[in-house]
Amino acid sequence: xxxxxxxxxxxxxxxxxxxxxxxxxxxxxxxxxxxxxxxxxxxxxxxxxxxxxxxxxxxxxxxxxxxxxxxxxxxxxxxxxxxxxxxxxxxxxxxxxxxxxxxxxxxxxxxxxxxxxxxxxxxxxxxxxxxxxxxxxxxxxxxxxxxxxxxxxxxxxxxxxxxxxxxxxxxxxxxxxxxxxxxxxxxxxxxxxxxxxxxxxxxxxxxxxxxxxxxxxxxxxxxxxxxxxxxxxxxxxxxxxxxxxxxxxxxxxxxxxxxxxxxxxxxxxxxxxxxxxxxxxxxxxxxxxxxxxxxxxxxxxxxxxxxxxxxxxxxxxxxxxxxxxxxxxxxxxxxxxxxxxxxxxxxxxxxxxxxxxxxxxxxxxxxxxxxxxxxxxxxxxxxxxxxxxxxxxxxxxxxxxxxxxxxxxxxxxxxxxxxxxxxxxxxxxxxxxxxxxxxxxxxxxxxxxxxxxxxxxxxxxxxxxxxxxxxxxxxxxxxxxxxxxxxxxxxxxxxxxxxxxxxxxxxxxxxxxxxxxxxxxxxxxxxxxxxxxxxxxxxxxxxxxxxxxxxxxxxxxxxxxxxxxxxxxxxxxxxxxxxxxxxxxxxxxxxxxxxxxxxxxxxxxxxxxxxxxxxxxx
Length: 618
Fold this sequence. Notes:
- The protein is of the alpha+beta class.
- The protein has 23 helices and 17 strands.
């Protein structure tokens, strides 16, 4: 796991100082080493911060060149099948001077060109400069575990793992993109290639990019997509067998490292299955669980201890310190774009504790999207079954009435608004934070405002039969990479901890979306149905398969009084907080005091305001 940054231009680059500064702004991503390389003609600069995981020797240093000196790479991530690829490439006559997966990518590109992407099993964002072709090649992993920002201006392409690396150059614009902000307020994140700042973009998951120096031509293309669902032949046992085999192999591969590795064990379905597979691969497995003192509702210690005892892991129980408001500006700076997810706080605290014991940790991310684990899947299916028969004109009328008459934060308001959808081809937006009407009131200066959130979301709803298919694919394509994986990457890397996700092995992704039918994912009353059947095979009797413990904090109670309430009020009503309409903000605060569910909405406004101040955005 590392931090990468670079620039390519059709003409020699005069100002080189910002590159090293941008690299070191991401020191947390790689405290073990640094590097910088410039092409002889001065048109290409690559820089790198290293968190040493595979091949800790200087031979793994980056930027790395191949033996010919024609190819140069900076790489962030891990390639889990690098040993097999290395052996295959050696059979083709390729020689290696290191034992790193970085060099395997270089040689794979030399052998197969951009088609090497289909052979890589891992999480990655990398850039290769091909000097004979005077072309830069960039790619991002299929699920979007590793980030990549870029900008193109004046014939020069700049890129970095984190936006803050690029923003070291004070000459770059910091003007907020209104469409991106509207999506953030609507969905809770900035989707796809959009970026909160004008002039910047994200390379979407499963995409690649090339930039040709001779004509400054930029091309972006998708190299991978979710497979179409196949007909199910009814052989449930065959599915279970394949799931078990691939998951075991994924965990085995992801345990490989030259540094200490642990498993984040909550005692839930996903992390318990990962633990079960880990003990098959290693004789000694270290597991970690974290408790938050004073919050018994969020304590998973007992469930994790049960699994750890059964499998005989070396189990470590950690206790997180009490959260304080001081952590919020730190996280606002670390998250290059704000996300509406207060669980970034416990994720950061857990990462900080676990990093004291290991450098790599395996987690359970991806199970909900792949196998139907979210509670809202039950509710969506219930809505379709129980309310879908009601004529749509009546449902639309109820939806509009709920928006007009019910206050923001009123329990059930979002679900009533979602009734207007056409269930046969649409997807209700039940996770909306601020609807169109509220956003129209919220923006203090709406002259250049574009209410684009609903339109952009509508354009990206998968065109596929089945409400659950659309919901899980939408979450995989957007919520997973733009919220969950951003949260994990930034919070863990701020502590120089690499978190891996065995459930996001692309073979499991393709298995889940191509082969597992909806009826084995979720129903109106059940979730993760196939995964839970697997737990019956591999987990002990007495395991609670029905528990769904979200990783969260009691934000609503913290906002009732004390330091958190005062801090939120001070920041959001400060004279310098001019981005949002004061009256609307006060209404949200009063609504929270009355018991309405506005805590995450207030968190959204607070984190945006802290982020805007930190980076001087307008």
